[in-house]
Records
---
Amino acid sequence: MIEFQNVTKKYHNGTVALDNVNLRIDDGEFVFIVGSSGAGKSTLIKLMLREETANSGIVKVNGKNLGKMARYKIPKFRRSIGIVFQDFRLIPNMTAYDNVAFALRVTNVRPKEIKRKVPYMLNLVGLASKMKCKPEELSGGEQQRVALARALVNSPSLIIADEPTGNIDPELSFEIVDLLNEINKLGVTIVMVTHEHDLVEKFNHRVITINKGEVIRDTKETEANLC
Amino acid sequence: MLNSFFYLVKQGFKNLWNNRLMSLASVGVLISCMLLIGAAALLSVNVSSIVDAVEDQSEAIVYLEDGLDDAAVEEVRDGLIATGKIATIEFISKEDALLDMMESMGDDGMLFDAYAKENNLPDSFRVTFDDVSDLENTVLHIEALLGVDSVSALTEVAEVITGVKNMAYVGGTIIIGLLISVSLMIIGNTIKITVFSRRREVNIMKYVGATNGFIRLPFIVEGVTLGVLSGALSYGIIYFAYDYLVKWVSSQTATWFGQIISELVPFSVVSQYLLIGFIGGGAFIGLFGCVAFIGKHLKV
């Protein structure tokens, strides 16, 4: 579960990225976060990953108050989350296999287990034949699928995807979100930041709209009010 | 845990190859700096050695008063030893002094045959010094000894020797200190550039949940390997260059230049210090450079 209580984030240059934000995402939900550039979407993600801390308010992820989390506990916390970025963020000199395996190695998983899990994950995202390829030898869509396999390999209960379709063509974008949708059906919480309204409309999920650092629309609340 | 350790060490060596251009640049910079420092150190050591050799050659003649008995001569000897500055001491009787003089004059020495019975030359001590830095005072001290008539010593030459020796020591220390400082700055910047070029990689690792130690270890393996490799190569280059120099110098002994620098310190005397300095320094720089400069990129 993700919970923001009266969260405000102001940067050193005076920019107010988030202003008194309140929201709650329950386990197993699929949520789109939309908004224009500079609306505060990325800051929201950074707070969820404990890359930044709020100036005021409480941010809780999977029951942990991130504002009070000691720096040395951050790596362990991040291992419980799968993260997918717009620019894939694969380690350039590692093969697809090693990129996925890296996420397991940081958790000190036994080599035997790594050999079993990594091919399974790459097969799941349709890249079994490209395990030995380096990121530069893969297309944008393929790189994003490797990143997705890496995000999934530790069996996280939450996946945060920051504009995962931003660098790939529309057809492949649909495939990626469809894959996330299938993962969500297994009970994994998905938070996906996007500005592609076509995708949001195709998949009938909760949408949180942010503008100028404030939550201006949340379809979950709208539905509740209608009832 | 052990699996991770071996994986990370292996990863460090892999990264050396993957980033071979940067590795090569780092080794180049390290070797250049180490060679400059090593050459300056060897120059300083050799200048000191040459000055020491010249110092060892400097001697003084202590002329004794006429008519001293054996006991009085021994008292003077004890007095000389008590100064604590004497390296060697040799008694020259007035007879020996005359013979020496006659020998040194060759055939013309026969002219002194007539003086053999009435030898006016004094008994003396020929002494060499451990340390000529305060020769003027030492001479004054000796002249004050009971039974000493006068002392003949090149105090001005001793002053020059002492000056050169001090200059070599202070100058050498300053030059080596400056070279080490400049080298550390250059090496620091090289490590900074290396780490900066891979900040994205570090950033990704942090997002995946890698601990700082997990990210640092391959960098440390890389840094220490490059440092040790550079140290070993620098040692090899210095060894061959110095060996060549020593051989060239020994072939020049017929000249005044050759004689002056025939006192070159053998490489075996300084080799262990250079080896420890180069390899230890290289490993130290590699280790602490990585730990210090990577820290900035770990705050994600």
---
Amino acid sequence: MKVTIDGIEIDVPKGTTILQAARMIGPQVAPPAMCYYSKLKTSGGYCRTCIVKVTKGSAQNPNPMPKPVASCRTEVMDGMVVENYTSPEVIEARKGVVEFLLINHPLDCPVCDQAGECKLQDLGYEHGSAKTRYEFKRREYDMIDIGDKIKLHMNRCILCYRCVKTVDQFTDKRVHGVIHRGDAAEISTYIEKAVNNDFSGNVIDVCPVGALTDKTFRFKQRVWFTKPMDAHRNCDKCSGRVRLWLKGEDVARVTARKDEWDEVMDTPDGKSGFICNSCRYDHKRKTDWVIEGPSPVNRHSVISQNHYQHLNELKVQALKQQKALGFMDINKKP
Amino acid sequence: MQLTNRRKVVSDKHQTLSERIYFPAVVKGMLITFSHLFKKRPTIMYPEEQREIAPVYRGRHVLKRDENGAERCTACGMCAVACPAEAITMESAERKRGEEGLYREEKYASTYEINMLRCIFCGLCEEACPKEAIFLTDRLVESEYERETFVYGKDKLVEKIDQRIDVTKRQTPEVIEFKKRPGLKHNSLFDKTQIDRHRKPH
């Protein structure tokens, strides 16, 4: 099926959603997504961040769709033409969506541990406005401890349901979910029952905001002062492939490896990349791990601050330039 | 070929008689020296006398408290990341129950250090601070005998509760309005025209 997104045509199999097709083209056309998570079944359709405009429904029926559609839940048709960033209408509508997401979200990024790797923060910078128009009191909840390792800060939750689906699909027993409805909806465990099974820590990784945070890392470091390193160890429960966030020689925290869409990466042999709690919480010595090397970090991310990942490349380039200009090679002995 | 118009022609001509006896040149030099006895002295006898400095002078930092006396700093690290000299380090801690009067936010800086030998007094920390906590003041960093003592901790940086440091001159409505100007870097992220540049993959 041929589909055109922002003027770029791509051939995709039947059943692909617009969002997946856009991601196949690349980040220049892929709409942002707060609730959709490709590794989780039935995720998506809640946040409306990924809305796009369909200007031509299909080759058979070239009529445009009347309203912007959620690209994570809309499947492509042959000959469909989609506008994302090229449509000012979509940008404007998305700005509205961001404003809605931020209605109850506290603007406490200086306090929040997620700052620097928060998708809502990025979205706010890219599409939101600098000021809030909301004049009423934001919803407020007490903080809840989900087990002894996870802190739930319900004020910051945007109800993306990712954590609920993670626990549903990756652990054997579901003990937390969304209670109440609409504006009063909140994530909760059944009577604050502790979530304790081997993969419960993954809810921290899937949370797009700072609602679920690692208590062993809470307030310890700002993420951009730590250095991400890919590492692995032999683990009988999970793949053991993780990202270590180092501060000097200390392991500040351990997370799963994430791809460019901020989703947990599968291993090269196709296994799930979600990591177990033992890897996440109990192995916080550098000697526990085999370090593979620095993790790739987007140059525009604040985490790339003072991390010279491409230093060697730069050196080689500079040497080449110098050689081309006829400079003397200072490393060469006469 | 003339490469520059500043070249000087070197000549090897011999000195004249007045140049050879040196005495006129010595007298000329001494006249300049003694004439300074009758001129206004530019030296300022610090610390008895102090030079008048602008109210927005960028001197020694202060960590402000809010109107209730609670520390404003929440250890967000924006100052440290903005610092071009990497002079600022901090550690954060969680506010405990009952400490609401000490710290304004739920997180606070348990240690906050500025190395005054590294600091270049550029004021970027002040500009980056989202909580209006750190300000540069018109005070000077005092001289010390040991290098270690130039690392200022919270004991020297946080203002004393009974000796508040006035920074209102740096926070006039004009200054706050100026910070909102679209040309400034921290506002440009909200500029729509910047979205494309920001998003493009490298």
